[in-house]
Amino acid sequence: MNSRERVLATLKMQKPDRVPFVEMTVDNVFIQKYLGNNPPDSLESKYRFTDDPVLNVVTVGDTRKESEEICDRLGIDAVGISFWIKHEGIVKQKGGHGLVVGGAIHSVEDAKKIRLPDPDDERLYKPVRDFIKEYRDMGKALYSIMNLCSDPVILGMGFENFSVAIYTQPDLVHELFELYGNWSAKVARNLSELDLDFLWSSDDIAFKTSTYVSPEEIRKWFMPHYKKVTDNISKPWIYHSDGMLYDVLDDLLSLGMSGLHPVEPGSMDLRVLKEKYGHRITLIGHIDVDKLSTGTPEEIDALVKQAIEDAAYGGGYICGSANSIPNYADPANVEAMSKAILKYGKYQ
After folding, report:
1. How far apart are CA 260 and CA 249, in angstroms?
2. CA angle, 4 as apex, 200 and 263 as ends, to 5°?
3. Whole domain around residue 187: which residue ranges?
4. What are the strands, taking DSSP E only, across the chain?
5. Integer Cα distance of 19 and 342 in angstroms
6. How far is it between the farthest Cα atoms of the chain?
7. Residues 6+ positions from 171 with CB-CB distance below 8 Å
8. Pairwise CA distance, residues 148 & 188, whole Å
9. Nearest in space to 245 (alpha carbons), one of 210, 277, 217, 204
10. Are the CB atoms for 239 and 260 separated by under 8 Å?
C-alpha cells in the first residue's frame, strides 16, 4: 500500500497497512533546519503575504526534490498546495512571518469595495494544476487547502470588531459572509473537479476552552455559509479548527466532512472523540506542538504511542502534530514522531 492508498483508505474509514502520517503544512525554516541546508536565521517562511489574490504554496518543501527528500526521511504520506484568498486584514511581518494584527473592513461600504478574482477563471487554478502534474507520480496523497469562508471574514474585520459587529452591524457581517461564502462555493466546486485526492479546509472558530462566539452565533452566521460551500465539495475533505469544538461538533459533522483536524490536546480528548464519533469520522493530528519544540524524543514517542492506542483501532486515525510543523519545532522531536508512528502504527 503506497502513501496515497493509505491516506484515502483511512479517510474512507477503512483500515490500511499502518497509521498514516500527514501534516497540514511544514514550515520552510524547519525544513531547512532538518535538512541542514541553511542557517535558520537566514530564512523566511514561505507563507508570507504577497500582492497575489490567492496564495499558492506547496505545503511540504519548496521543490519536488525537496518535498521528496523531506517526505521520504520523515515518512509523510501527503503533500498539498494552499489556495488561500487574500483577506483585508492588516498584516505585519515579524521574523519572516505575516501576523494579522487588525482588520480593514469597518462598514458595508468597505465590504462593497472588495474585489475578489473570478472564481471560474481557469487561470486561477493553473498553480494547482501544475502542482498536480509535477507531484502526482510521487505516490503521495495530494490535497489543496482552502477556506470555507469565515477566516477571511474574521481576519478582514479584525477579531474584536467581528465579535461586536455580529450584534451591532449584522448587515456588514451578512455582506461579508455572502461575499466569501458564494466565492468559496465556486472554488470548492472547481477544486473538486481537479485530480486532487482530498480538500482541506482551514477556518478556525475556537479558542482552547470555547468557540470564538457562542454556539448559537456559530449556528446562525457560520453554518449556513459553510453548508453552501461544502455542498459543492465532491471529494473527501478535512475540516480544520484548533480549540474546543464539543459544543458545535454535531453541527460541523452534519456538513459531511471525512476528517477532523487537529484535535488539539487540552481542548479535545482523543479517546472520547474516538469512542463517540470514531465510526463517523477520521481523527487527525493531536501530537502536542509545544512538546515538539520543548519536549524530548522520549516524550514524543510516548505521546504517539498513546494517541495510536486511543484512536487507531479499526482505522480512522491519521497521526501528526496538533496543527502543523512550525519553524521552532525541534527536528529530533519531529523525527521521533515519525519513527513512533512507524513503530506503533502497524495494523495486524
Report:
1. 10
2. 40
3. 22-265
4. 54-55, 78-82, 84-85, 89-94, 97-103, 141-146, 198-202, 237-240, 259-261, 282-287, 317-321
5. 8
6. 60
7. 108
8. 8
9. 210
10. yes
The answer to whether residue 182 is domain-embedded is yes
**Long-range contacts (CB closer than 8 Å, 24 or more residues apart) made by 116-125:** 116/53, 116/85, 116/179, 116/180, 116/183, 117/53, 117/54, 119/183, 119/184, 119/186, 119/187, 119/190, 120/186, 120/190, 124/53, 124/54, 125/190, 125/191, 125/194
Residue 35 domain-assigned (yes or no): yes
CATH of the domain at 240: 3.20.20.210
Can you say how many angstroms the Cα of residue 46 is from the centroid of all Cα atoms in its chain?
16
With cell 454556539, the residue in question is 215
The answer as to whether 1 is a domain residue is no
Written as nine digits, the cell of 256 is 459531511
Cell numbers standing for residue 259: 476528517
- CA torsion 337-69-20-266 (nearest 10°) is 40
Torsion angles phi and psi, residue 243, rounded to 5: 90, -170
pLDDT digit string, tens, across residues 21-42: 999 999 998 999 899 886 555 5
Residue 145 amino acid letter = I
Q: Does a structural domain hold residue 313?
A: no
Please tell me the distance from the alpha carbon of residue 48 to that of residue 98, in angstroms, as a whole number. 5
Q: Please state the pTM of the whole predicted model.
A: 0.96
How does pLDDT run across 210-243, given as a tens digit for each residue? 999 999 999 999 999 999 999 999 999 999 999 9
The number of distinct structural domains making up the chain is: 1
